[in-house]
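I hope you will forgive my troubling you with a question about protein structure. The matter concerns a single protein, recorded as an amino acid sequence and a row of C-alpha cells. Please examine both parts with care and let me know of anything in them that strikes you as inconsistent. Thank you for your consideration; the sequence and its C-alpha cells are set out here:
***
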Amino acid sequence: MSLADSDRELVVSELGREPTRAEAALFENLWSEHCAYRSSRPLLSAFDSEGEQVVVGPGDDAAVVALDEENYITMGIESHNHPSYVDPFDGAATGVGGIVRDTLSMGAYPIALADSLYFGGFDREHSKYLFEGVVEGISHYGNCIGVPTVAGSVDFHPDYEGNPLVNVACVGLTNEERLVTAEAQEPGNKLVLVGNATGRDGLGGASFASEDLAEDAETEDRPAVQVGDPYAEKLLIEANEVLVDENLIESARDLGAAGLGGASSEMAAKANLGADIELERVHQREPNMSALEILLAESQERMCYEVEPDNVDRVREIAERFDLGCSVIGEVTDGNYVCTFDGEAVVDVDAYFLGEGAPMNDLETEAPDPPATDLPEVDPEEAFEAIVSSPNTASKRWVYRQYDHEVGVRTSVGPGDDAAIVAVREAEQGLAISSGAAPNWTDAAPREGARAIALENATNIAAKGATPLAAVDCLNGGNPEKPDVYGGFTGIVDGLAEMCETLSTPVVGGNVSLYNDSVAGPIPPTPTLAMVGSKAGYDAPPLAVEPEGDLVLVGDLGLESGEPSLGGSEYLAQFGGSDGFSKLPDDPAALIETLAAVADDESTLAVHDVSHGGLAVSLAEMVTDEAGLAVSIPGDDPAAALFHEQPGRALIQTESVETVREAFDGVAPVVELGAATDDGRLTIDLGERTIETDAAAIRDRRATIERELE
C-alpha cells in the first residue's frame, strides 16, 4: 500500500514541497482506514457517548466511566483481524497486549479481558487451525500477564473463512487522582520511551490492516505482524503502576498502530502542539535500523510517556528496576512535529494535520433487500439434536478452560454464564461484563440484527441482576468501497446506536475494522459490543436450575404476534431457508430494568437469557445431573416457537410466579412453561410430539468443539 495520489497532492499542498520518504510513510499509515476511520467516522456521530457516568469518552486510548465519586473503570476494545489470519498465535496474542497497554495509558490497572472470536465453518480444517492458534495466543498472553479472561463469544460462519475476526476488550480500574490521558500537556516536557527495544517487526501494520487480504497473505504479509512478549508486558504493567502512583506521568500513549510515529504524533496533535524527536536515541534490538524502521515498527510492549524534566531520572530508575529499556527520545514543543536521525530532519510536519488532516470518504451505499420467507420442514427432534450440538451453540468450555479467569481474585461469575461478574471491592459493586455479536442476525438483517445484539448483551447483564452502565464497540466490515458492503456496515452502526440510546447506555469508545475482505468474499457485518453493568454486591442468580421451582418465560413465545420469525436463527443456518428477522420488544429499556430487579429478588432461583438457538438451547443449558425440567410449549407451531431467536427474553426459575407476573405487568408477557424436576431430565411437550433427553446426553451433544479438537 502506498500514499494515494489525491492524498499526496493534499500533503504537497500543505507542506509546500514533496514529502520525505519517512513523511510519506507516516501519512500513509496515519491516514489509513485503520487509523483515520476515513469511511466510518462520518457515521459514528450516530452514537450517544454522553452521560453523568462518562468521564472520558471516545478519542483516547480507552474510555473512562465512573462507578461512584471515587472509583473509575476504563473500557477499551480493539481488533487484530488481519494479523490473526497471517499468524493466529502472535496476531491474537499481540491484540491482547495492545488493548492492555491502552488501559495502562489511562493510568488504570487491567482487571478483566473479554474476547469475541469469529471463524469460518467449523468443518473446515483451516478454520480449526486458525481457531486453535488464536485461542492459544490469547490464553498464553493473558495468563502470563495475570489478567483474567472472563467473558467473550465464539461464532462460526462460512463467510469468515478467508478473514477471521479477533476482537478483544479490556476493563481497568483507576480513580480521579490516577487518571492520565493521551493529550500532551506542556512544551518542554520530555518524551520518554519505556519498554521493549525496537525491532523490525510489525512494519506497516496500520496500512496492512487497511486493505483486503490477498491470497498469499499468510506468507507475504508476515513481516507486518508483531511478535509479543507477555513477560515484558507484565513488567510494563507493574512499572506503569509505580509511575502512576508516584504521579510521574503527564500524558501517555501505548505504541500500537504506526509505532512510535503514531503514538508521539497523536499525543502532540491532541493538544495542537508539536515535538522534537531524535530517532537514534530509541533503544533498539536490531543493528543498522533506518529512521523509517525506527519510526514505524510496531514492536510490542512499549509506552511513550510525557514526563516533566525533573522527574526523568526517577522514571529511568523505575524502568531499570523492572528490567525495562528507557530512552529519553525528545520533548514536547509548540512547533511542528519534527523527527531527526543523526542530525538530519526526516520529518517536519504539523502534528494536527498529520493526525486529523485525512479527508473523509463519501461512499455509495446500497441497502440489503429484505429476505423472503422460505422455511424448511424439519422434524423437531432432528432440529433439537442439530441445533444443540452446533458449534455456534455448543459449549465453549474448550476455549475458556484454557484461560485463567480466577487470577486477581475478583471473578465472582466466570465464563460460560450469560455475563461474567468481577468484584470491584473498592466501590462495593459487582461489574457485569458481556461481549459478543451474532453474525447470523446481522447477515440476515444488519440494522435490526445490530439492535438485537445490543439488547442481547443488555439481557445477559440484567440476567445477573445488574443494570447496563456503558459499552464499547468493535465495528467490523468488509471492503467499504462495495456499495452493498457499505450499506450493511451503515446498517449495523445505526442499529447499534439506536438500541444503546434506547437503553440509556452510552457507547463511550470503540474500534473500526474495515477491509475484512478476501478472495473468499466479505465477512458478514459484525458489530461486537462489549457492555458492562453494575450492581450492589457480587452475587448473582445461577444459570442452572434447582430441583424445585416453577419455570416461566419472560418475553414473546410467538403466540400473540403470530408465527415467530426465524430469520437469522441457527435453525435456518442448519437446514437452509430464509425469513424475516424477529420483532423486538416494544419497551426494551423497561424490560431490562425489570429483569435486573427480578433477578435479584429473593424468590428467584435461576435466570438464563434466550438467544442463540432459541428456547431449545436455553432449556438444555439449564439442566444438570441433579435438576431437570418438564416444560410444555403451546401454540399451533411449537417447533417454530422452540427455535426462533428473538432477543430480550429470559427464562426464570422462581418460587413465586405471581411475583414475576406483577413485576412484568405492562412490560412483557410472562408464560408459564413448567417446573423443575429432581431427575436431571429435560422433557419438552410440543403437543403432538415430545422431546426427551437428560443432562448426560445434552452434555455429550454440546461437547462438539471439545470432541473435534482433542
